[in-house]
Amino acid sequence: MKFWKYHGLGNDFVLSEDLDGTLEATPARAARLLNRHTGIGGDGWLLVRQSQSCDVAMFLYNNDGSVAEMCGNGLRCFAKHVYDRGIVQKEVFTVETLAGVMTVAVTAKDGVAEAVTANIGSASLDRASIPMVGEGDCDQITMRALDRDFTVSACRMGVPHAVVFGRDFTDADVLKYGPVLETDPAFPQKANINFANILDDHTVEVRTWERGCGRTLACGTGSSATAVLCHRAGYTGDDVEIRLQEGNLRIQVTSDGVVMTGPAALAFTGETAL
After folding, report:
1. Residue positions in the annotated binding site for substrate?
2. 193 and 173, same structural domain?
3. Count of alpha carbons within 13 Å of 235, Cβ hemisphere only?
């Protein structure tokens, strides 16, 4: 099988083309491919497929072999690939995902996509759609993990997200508390946990513990959820710079959806029998 290895600010993906629908794609194979010790390694496995309703379709497995409805960084890598390879021959196009239709626009130079802007839809704050057990809104509630209380808001941004508000979270905090919050009984489908250090009214540093992946260097839907919930809480405006370990994303919260702009990079290509 031929593959391409991409990353969006360090959030890395194996990508395969399955335009004829014959590729053997199973959770077990995804887990083998994405194993960093015995496989290619990656946070996710992206599949390029035909769509009956959009220009192209994206399917995604997480590192553990589970299916992901959406991934912002994965979407940017996917968009770069289908544009650079000529699978989609226009700069603005639609992508079918399990979370709905995403509209993407590539910024290209000499036929190569350098950045991708994507409208990934609006965040849902409804508990049933997140899902999150309990009643009332999900804004700035107190959740306890191990020995510490956190102020948390939640939404669905394609997938379930919780944002933990603070100013001095470290990677040690993410590794200690992330898996506990991810599997809290309040989240029946688990949740992605975003630790948000609010730097000022337009800048937030984010560290994410991803459901099905663990600690990742970047999370596009998590960055988007963070911007939405920080804006809703009054911490920031509607145009936010999200600072991640390997670079920044621009997130704009609009009445027509959340717009994410950032890079995507091809690392290498190869073939595997895995």
Report:
1. 11, 62, 72-73, 192, 210-211, 220-221
2. yes
3. 24
Cα–Cα distance measured from residue 40 to residue 13, given in angstroms and rounded to the nearest whole number? 10
Does residue 129 belong to any structural domain of this protein?
no
What's the chain's length in residues? 274
Within this chain, do residues 230 and 149 fall inside the same structural domain, yes or no?
yes
pLDDT at 211 over 90: yes
* 19 neighbors 48 (Cβ within 8 angstroms): yes
Plot region of 111 (φ>0 → left; ψ -120 to 50 → alpha; else → beta): left
The pLDDT value given to residue 114: 95
Q: Give the Å distances, CA to CA, from 39 to 13, 77, 181.
A: 12, 20, 29
pLDDT at residue 136 greater than cutoff 90: no
Question: Looking at residue 46, what is its pLDDT?
Answer: 99
pTM: 0.93
Q: What 3-state DSSP class applies to 270?
A: strand
Q: What's the whole-number mean pLDDT along residues 10-33?
A: 97
Q: What is the pLDDT of residue 274?
A: 79
Q: Which domain holds residue 178?
A: 141-260
Residues making up the annotated binding site are 11, 62, 72-73, 192, 210-211, 220-221
Distance CA(264)–CA(182), nearest Å, equals 27
- Residue-wise pLDDT for 244-270, tens only, equals 999 999 999 999 999 999 999 999 999
Residues carrying an active site annotation = 71, 219
